Each structure stands twice: as C-alpha cells, then as structure tokens.
Fold:
Amino acid sequence: MFAYSANRELESSAKVRALEALLIQKGVLSTSTVDTILKYFDQTMGPFNGAKLVARAWCDPDFKNFLLTDCNAACESMDMPTGMSGAEGEIMRVAENTPTVHNLIICTLCSCYPWPTLGQPPYWYKDPTFRARGAREPRAVLAEFGLTIDPSVEIRVWDSSGQIRWWVLPERPLGSEGMNELQLVKLLTPESMMGVAKVVI
Amino acid sequence: MYTHFEEYAVSSLSGCRIPPPKVNGKLDFNSDWTQTAFAIAIELSKQGYFEWEEFRQGMIEAIGEWEENHALNDPSWSYYSCWTVVLERLILSSGLLNISEVQDQYLATTECKLSSSAHPCSTSEALDSDSY
Structure:
C-alpha cells in the first residue's frame, strides 16, 4: 500500500477538482461520468454459472468431489442453460485452492477460457504480457493484482487449451459459515475463479 | 470479440509494469479524487480527445521521472498524482482547456479549500508550491 504526503494529496485533489469542474462546465463530462465509469469496474459482468457451482460445492462435499472429478457432468446435473458443459466440446477442469496451494489459470497460446462458467474473459487475460508473465513469475503477477501469496503456499499455474479449459474453486471465506448458497453466490467474482483474487466477505 | 475500452485501458497499464494500485484483484482508490482522475482520463480518451497510448506513454514517463528523482520508499509517492500530471498535460495539449482557465479554476478550488480548512497555515504551505 502506498503512503501519501498530505501536501501532494491536496495539490492533486485540487487539480482534479478544477479539471472536472471545467470539463463539466464545457459539457465534455456530465456529473454522472465518474460514477458510470466506476460502476463498470464494480459490476463488470452479471451473475456467473461458475459462482453457482462454487457455492454448491462449498455447501455439499459430495457435489464438490463431483465437480473436481467431472466438471462437465457436474454442470449438467444443475439447472443451467444448454451448452453449459462445454459448448465447443471442450473439457472443463477445476483446480481447488487450499491453505497450501493457490491456483492461477492462464492461456499461454491465446485466450482459451471457460466461458460457460465464467462468462467472457477480461481483456487482461488476453494480454500477451499477462500470459507470458503469468507462467514465468506468477507470484509477481498476483502481487500486481493486489494478492500477496505467502511464500509457504505453492502456486500452481494451469494453462488452458482448446481441449481443456481450467478454472479455480476458491477457498470458502471465514465468516461465511452461516450463509446459504444464494448468499454465497453473491460473494464470488470472476477474478476469484481465475485465481487472481480471493473470496472475501 | 467485443472488448470494453475501460478494461483495455487498465490492462494496457498492467502490461508495462505500471499497474494501477489494486487490492485482491480490484482497483484500489484511496480517495474520491483518485476515482475522479481515473474516470476523467478514461472518458476523455473514449471521446477521442487523446489516444490511450499517449496516456500510457505519459504514465511511463511520469513514473520514470519520479523514480529518477526520489527514493523508492519516498512517502510522498502517489500513483494518482502522476496520473493527474499526465491527464492535465494531455488536456492542455488537446486544446480542450487552456492553462489560464485551469489555473484560475485551480486557485478558486484551493481558496475554497483554504476557507473551509481547519488548519489554514499548513494547507496554505501545501498549495503554495510550484504547482503553477
């Protein structure tokens, strides 16, 4: 986390306020521009099928084993849209995060992604630098996502392909013991199921 | 595949080792003004007032300049202060605003802050720097 000097903060804050006021006066920005842009980052995508699968797995150990053993069959067992279990014939596999293992999914060749469960891939997933560095220095890349993994925790990187699309079963967060599946679904983010974030309450 | 400009903008910065501060995968803003600075830059580039690549190069330059002249643990480091410097330069060079109107508005903003500050002396010193 950065430390800031009060002076530098005040100067920058005043400049930004001045620029914003002038741009609104000229009609270049509206008063809702900032909220609109930020909302995009907060609510990038809607509910995910992957979130439903994870929430069920957290609540039902048998389903969790089923999901880890045969993700496609687990998808078919739930009431999900047609084509959910591998629309292009690909196999989906799930890597489970534990206190000793953290998983990260990447695609070093292109941008293979388990879109039936996670939706459309974010742009950075397709970025050549992320793809290369994710394989080479995953710990550093995760730190840039604001996720520091303890050195004692092993990081496993899973490279998706046209045949196998990987995604991550994150750890259930502490404090969620009393939550039901519907409540748990709301905690999940695409980042947590890609391995670049943890699930937090 | 359709890509949101917002996402492209952020990931293009991540690729060159000048990523915006994040916490647990999400953008991390420490105050309202940093959110505003972030959103203005993206919106103006979306509207075509400057290319995002110009902004990205500006950030590389601004952060490089900072690192050349400060210790890496300098407590006055602020990612979004660099962002603001680049944003202001591009707004001026695009002709969207001119320096005198920005200066007048800046002074009006700081006077407003001064009049509402509980500690005007320290604030005055802060705003009486070489900003203009």
Observations:
- The CA atoms of residues 91 and 97 of chain B lie 6 Å apart.
- Helices of chain B lie at 5-14, 32-46, 52-69, 79-94, 99-116, 120-127.
